[in-house]
Each structure stands twice: as C-alpha cells, then as structure tokens.
Amino acid sequence: MRFRExxxxxxxxNLTPMVDMLFLxxxxxxxxxxxxxxxxxxxxxxxxKYTSTSKLEERILTISRDEKLxxxxxxxxxxxxxxxLKNAFSKQDDKTLVLRADKNVTYGTVVDIxxxxxxxxxxxxxxPTVLEPEKNP
Length: 137
Known about the structure:
The chain is of the alpha/beta class. It is built from 3 helices and 7 strands.
C-alpha cells in the first residue's frame, strides 16, 4: 500500500504592494501639503465668521502689535515702504500683497500702509483672518 505524501503548502503574504502603497500615500501627503514659515512676530489676527483664510503666501507685509513693519520677515521703515514694495513687485505679474496686521493696530495705521501699497502700484491687498470657532447655543 502506497501512501500519498501530503504536500504542505505555505501561504506567503507578499508585503511589496503594501509597502508600495504606503510609500505612495506618504509621497502624496508630502507633495500636497504646504509648509509656510511664519516669522517670530507675535500677532493676534482678527477673527471672522464667514470668510476663509487666504492661501497667498508669496509677498507678506506684517504690522506687529507695536506697529513695526516687516516685509517677508525683514524689518522695514515706513519711509522706505513704497520703494521696498516697488522693488519687490517690479517683476511680478500678480501684484497682490498679503497684509497681516495685529487686531490691536489702529485703523489709521492700516489705511496708511494700504495707501503706500497702492502708491507702489499694487493692484490687490488681501488681509488674512482667523476663522472663529462656531459656538453652540
């Protein structure tokens, strides 16, 4: 009597496709996320209920709480602001300035800065805000 030998089959889980998918997911998140370097200027942006924040991060003018000016994280004197803005936007097609101001800065200061930006030939000024969290009644 001859007995058949039982073949033992081992199932092997191939991990290569899973590693490939994890790599692709990681790559996707790295490519689609945007990293913006915020200056060490402490600001408390005003909050809004109905508008979203801006995604423009190319040309930023910041007005700190003590009304000091920073263009792209570099301090700027008010008297030099028009010249600095003209030089920065001279070769740009999109003449949009992002104006970040602390919520405690006076309205007159913001208007003066906006006037200087218009004097430098800028077409649009965007003011980013922080979205207010919804309150449950």
